[in-house]
Amino acid sequence: MRQFPNRQALFRAVSPVATALALCAGGVAHAQQADGPTAPADAQESQGDIVVTGSRIARSDLAASVPVAVVSSADIARTGAANIQDVLADLPAVGQNISRTSTNFSTTGNGQASVNLRSLGSSRTLVLVNGRRYVAGIPGTSIVDLNTIPTDLIKRVDVVTGGASAVYGSEAIAGVVNFILDDEFVGLRLHGQGTVSDKGDAPRQLVSAVAGASFADGRGHIVLSGSYDFDHGLRSRDRSFSATDNPNRSSFSAQGLFSPSGTFAPGAGTFTYDALNNLKQYQSANIDGYNRNFDRYLALPVERYLGSALAKFEIAPAATVYGEFQYAKSKSQSSLEPQAVASTDLVYADGSAFAGIPITNPLIPTQIRNAMVTAGVTALPFRRRSNDIFDRSNRNDRETWRGVAGIRGDLSPTLHYDVYYTHGETRDVTQSGTVYGPNYANALNAVAGPNGPVCAINADANPNNNDAACVPINIFGFNTVSAAAAAYVTRNGEQTRYEARVKQDVVSATVSGDLFRLPGGPLGFAIGGEYRHEKSTEDFDEATNLGLTLGNQLSDTRGSYNVKEAFIELNAPILKDKPFFHSLSIEGAARYADYSTVGGVWSWKAGAEWAPIPDIRFRGVYSQATRAPNISELYSAQNETFPAVIDPCDQRAGNGDGAPISVTNLSAACRAVPAIAAAAAGGGFVYSTAQIQTINGFTGGNPNLREETAKTLTLGGVFQPRFARGFSLSVDYYQIKVENAIGIIGQQTSLDECYTGGGEAIFCNNIVRDNTGHLTSVNAINLNTGSFEVSGIDTQAQYSTKLPFAKIDFNLRWTHLLKQEQTSYPGGPTQDELGQLDCYACGRLGTGFRDKVNASATLGFDGVSVNWRVNYLSSVVDDLTSATPRRTGDFWYHDAQVRFEPLGTRYAFYLGVDNVFDKKPPIFSDTSLVTFPGTQTSATTYDLYGRLLYAGVDFRF
């Protein structure tokens, strides 16, 4: 997925031996030369026993039965990215993310950042920091906001896809992303960078500092870091492909549109104003309408303040105490076109409808009033944008903090323990301006007074308006609303307010080590338990709860749950250094979790590795993973809707009063309802229009949800020929099948499947009828209803060599997608998404690229290194917006960086270019289902910025 124009480059290998050991973990984990540029402090990881992400058992090398993609600190440095999401977005295994290019129109959470493995959704990707769970950044979910992760403190990022739920628990269906922070950094690092597009916009600034020291003869370490970065965002109007609405501007204009007939059609019957506020006939939206993209963002501005502290001290070999603290504050802001208001949107405070501006309003121009008289109407329908009234764009303030306290040590030379407690909290506050519908209606209902227009507050003029504070509002023309009227309809600029809090507590204990020796080596094990408590609240202001604003009516969500877990893992090296068995090992893991919500669930995995000779290693793992429903899925309020549905048993086919009977025979399922059968026998089972209009339904959470389950399979191998030192190749097949996926069944689908399909309870239980057999409600609450399947082949190749005059590194990552499909409900049609462009409005998993490639080449010599990175996205099709499918064509993105280190690795200066050839995204209409508003393209898939230039310094003392 192309989220931002930043690219990944893998760093140079310290030696063929170290490279080979690292690549066993997935073909991409590379040790780095100690004198290489921006060398990380993790060179010692190639020595002694270590713990690989995806397992809790320490082992002597990085071999594992599941592929582990490793992104090092040097990789991150070569991208020039301040936000770690921009680095991860280029991994072929990562799908479309929640990001600053896709959240401008979100009600809350603007500018948040997530990671989404295999396009199965961010809620099915588990994020860890130093192998431990991290507090969610999106309330009601388990999704971590990557804005809270300090990029310059990251030692490496391990990415495991599939087979991780048995080791780490729920949410690891698609895999795990583990951020390893450098807790042994020594010295002082100062880093600064500036970024700007070649058009002079989209600026970004970053400054950071990391300081660390060891003490007590190396038994203690403390590391402090702080950073500030500001991405100023990018306006839609600043790129030619998104500068204007496509194909048509909005008819809700800043000067107003007035139609006595209510048709708002161009011509003499519809009125508007020119730029000089002269009344005129409405011609078209493109002439008289509003360009919404002038106000919108392609990418939101995000400002971040991050601080971290890591410390550990070895009291004795049996006890090392450690602690971590992270604090993150981020600010972001959306930008929406001013609120569009129509007469049909308004109601009075008592709930009665607002028919339009009363003809008694003296502010109505004479020409329009005469047209009203001619048309025989006494209320004037209108459409107008609220430019001179308020700004409805969101302003977001988020804070996250997390503390860890633990103790670990050796119980014996081969037995180790680790016990820790972590507490994390997220606070999210979103505010924006709003119009209060009843006040707007009051202000439009004006009459002539002795000194000008006044609100009709007496019972004779308007029984609905008894607000003495009312101020008449003039919406006829540009900038005609007075400050007093704007204050009245916005309640003196009162803000809507959303405040959310997330709290997470985790207590974990693990004992690991070796039990006894097998022919291939010691039998490794890990056993332990974990307790976790999650709590989330989302609180909207009262006006939003009651639907008094012209925005969405939204309800609060509150909930919590706890889970107690026990786990065990074994790694058994069966043979070693035998003919055709250079090594053979098997491994397994099981985890039992007892949730306060869904009860007991099991996860497990079984895997094996076989190396017939040192050059080739085969590996595989099969697992069952789980995901428990989150707080939002369980406890979000059930909101009332009034769906436009047709009862399959209605013998007038939903046509209402006076319509002819179009269906004379009922299905067996309809006849099985006694009241329907009796009505049909007595003249027909039919609905009046009033009955149709009162059918309601509820959407929202369901406390009776069960867990999702998934079967995952990974089979592959690693080729490391001794005759080609420095070369490695890994190829892995993956398959993930998710069952009982949480989602909703459409209300009409429930009706159709219940009465004309198989009549399963999963559909029929959503339907409520009265004692006459007529529908009263059709619900669409969360259910365990769907299934997903993805499969593909991951290929990774790396070559590193040292020439007399230079060092060369090459790395390639390639994912070939074989299948991406989903089924919304049992027995329903399967949606094939292979080769399809992402559709944010129709529930696709993400863009189904058949091929995604990320390649990097680095040439280093005499204190200078040059890196070139390429991302390839294969062609996909959009067949949703027209009868003729449209293909995007293949997309190639190129990035480059030059790094100068004239005095060694302690002082680095670098220059970089992202999207070197200024590749533009494919363009679609604003009405297309693949288009994010304001972008004219798939904003989570393609680069929106164009060519970006950056320069920075990185000093170490």
From TrEMBL:
Source organism per UniProt: Sphingomonas kyeonggiensis
Family listed: Belongs to the TonB-dependent receptor family.
Record-linked InterPro entries: Beta-barrel_TonB (IPR000531), Beta-barrel_TonB_sf (IPR036942), Plug_dom (IPR012910), Plug_dom_sf (IPR037066), TonB-dep_rcpt-like (IPR039426)
Subcellular location: Cell outer membrane
Membrane topology reported for the UniProt record: Multi-pass membrane protein
Top-level taxonomy: Bacteria, Pseudomonadati, Pseudomonadota, Alphaproteobacteria, Sphingomonadales
Keyword annotations of the record: Cell outer membrane, Membrane, Receptor, Signal, TonB box, Transmembrane, Transmembrane beta strand, Transport
Positions of the TonB-dependent receptor plug domain: 64-176
PROSITE patterns membership: TONB_DEPENDENT_REC_3
TonB-dependent receptor-like beta-barrel domain segment(s): 385-916
A cellular-component GO term for this protein: cell outer membrane
UniProt-listed Gene3D superfamilies: TonB-dependent receptor, beta-barrel domain, TonB-dependent receptor, plug domain
A Pfam family annotated for this UniProt entry: Plug
Protein name: Outer membrane receptor protein involved in Fe transport
Leader sequence residues: 1-31
